[in-house]
TrEMBL record:
<keyword id="KW-0413">Isomerase</keyword>
<dbReference type="InterPro" id="IPR035990">
    <property type="entry name" value="TIM_sf"/>
</dbReference>
<comment type="function">
    <text>Involved in the gluconeogenesis. Catalyzes stereospecifically the conversion of dihydroxyacetone phosphate (DHAP) to D-glyceraldehyde-3-phosphate (G3P).</text>
</comment>
<protein>
    <recommendedName>
        <fullName>Triosephosphate isomerase</fullName>
        <ecNumber>5.3.1.1</ecNumber>
    </recommendedName>
</protein>
<keyword id="KW-0324">Glycolysis</keyword>
<feature type="binding site">
    <location>
        <begin position="237"/>
        <end position="238"/>
    </location>
    <ligand>
        <name>substrate</name>
    </ligand>
</feature>
<dbReference type="GO" id="GO:0004807">
    <property type="term" value="F:triose-phosphate isomerase activity"/>
</dbReference>
<feature type="active site" description="Proton acceptor">
    <location>
        <position position="170"/>
    </location>
</feature>
<comment type="pathway">
    <text>Carbohydrate biosynthesis; gluconeogenesis.</text>
</comment>
<keyword id="KW-0312">Gluconeogenesis</keyword>
<dbReference type="Pfam" id="PF00121">
    <property type="entry name" value="TIM"/>
</dbReference>
<dbReference type="InterPro" id="IPR013785">
    <property type="entry name" value="Aldolase_TIM"/>
</dbReference>
<comment type="similarity">
    <text>Belongs to the triosephosphate isomerase family.</text>
</comment>
<feature type="binding site">
    <location>
        <begin position="9"/>
        <end position="11"/>
    </location>
    <ligand>
        <name>substrate</name>
    </ligand>
</feature>
<feature type="binding site">
    <location>
        <position position="216"/>
    </location>
    <ligand>
        <name>substrate</name>
    </ligand>
</feature>
<dbReference type="InterPro" id="IPR020861">
    <property type="entry name" value="Triosephosphate_isomerase_AS"/>
</dbReference>
<dbReference type="InterPro" id="IPR000652">
    <property type="entry name" value="Triosephosphate_isomerase"/>
</dbReference>
Length: 253
């Protein structure tokens, strides 16, 4: 059975107080609801990692993640944070290849391959984001386009390394726009990605790789998206900033 994961992406939001309030609310609601089979990841801005981790404490199945890491371990790279440093702060996950990093910071598939390696080397679980632009979707080449992103950034990994990866399919046109892929469109892409993982690493690895959907997922549309057989959870931006909305998504799984 594959893991079910609901991951929040706070992006560059939340002051210290806001982050503490949101985390406490999520942890308390999560405990009350006694949700047993969904893993929750809070991908927070770097300074929140320690205090959020502290609030989570020993609550089972809630983890903390970062939203980026360097492809280097240490050195004169002002402003960067390495996987090695993140691991030393007990960070569990790291989002890599989010379309905002690709678009605003010029991250390409080759650089992401190095970052993924570093994350794995230091014991972090990468949530590797991939997805197509509206132009590519309209041209009808979205399936090969997204498969190519996986191939370039992930397919040099060994099967053992690959089996630690979480994939997040995030159509760029659906991120923060209020437009979601339909459940059928998401399923089509997830199925295609799983098949390409199977042809590279075999069906056992493919069948155990969680593939999350991201792009304007909210309490209203989550149930339908999450009901698809190859959709193993969600990566949630806007709706992860309000505890009730986020919990509604978790509960709808
Ligand atoms: C994201 O940032 O990964 C995302 C999916 O954002 P939103 O849910 O706001 O579209």
């Amino acid at each position: 059975m594959r893991k079910k994961i609901i991951a929040g992406n706070w992006k560059m939001n939340m002051t210290f107080d806001e982050g503490q309030k949101l985390t406490s609310e999520i942890v308390n609601m999560y405990k009350d609801e006694s949700i047993s089979d969904v893993e929750v990841v809070l991908n927070v801005p770097f300074p929140h990692i320690m205090p959020v981790k502290k609030l989570i404490g020993k609550t089972p199945r809630i983890f903390v993640g970062a939203q980026n890491c360097s492809d280097q371990d240490s050195g004169a790279y002002t402003g960067e944070v390495s996987a090695k440093i993140l691991a030393s702060f007990d960070t569990d996950f790291v989002i890599l290849g989010h379309s905002e990093r690709r678009q605003y910071f010029g991250e390409d598939n080759e650089l992401l391959a190095k970052k993924v390696k570093k994350a794995l080397e230091h014991g972090l679980t990468p949530i590797f984001c991939c997805g197509e632009s509206l132009e590519i979707r309209e041209a009808g080449t979205h399936l090969p386009n997204v498969k190519f992103q996986l191939k370039q950034s992930l397919f040099d990994l060994s099967a053992e390394e690959f089996s630690k990866i979480v994939i997040a399919y995030e159509p760029i046109w659906a991120i923060g726009t209020g437009k979601t892929a339909s459940a059928e469109e998401a399923q089509e892409m997830h199925d295609s990605l799983r098949k390409s993982i199977a042809s590279k690493y075999g069906s056992e690895v493919a069948n155990s790789t969680p593939i999350l959907y991201g792009g304007s997922m909210n309490a209203g549309n989550a149930k339908e998206l999450l009901s698809k057989p190859d959709v193993d959870g969600g990566l949630i931006g806007g709706a992860s900033l309000k505890s009730r909305d986020f919990l509604e998504i978790i509960k709808s799984y």
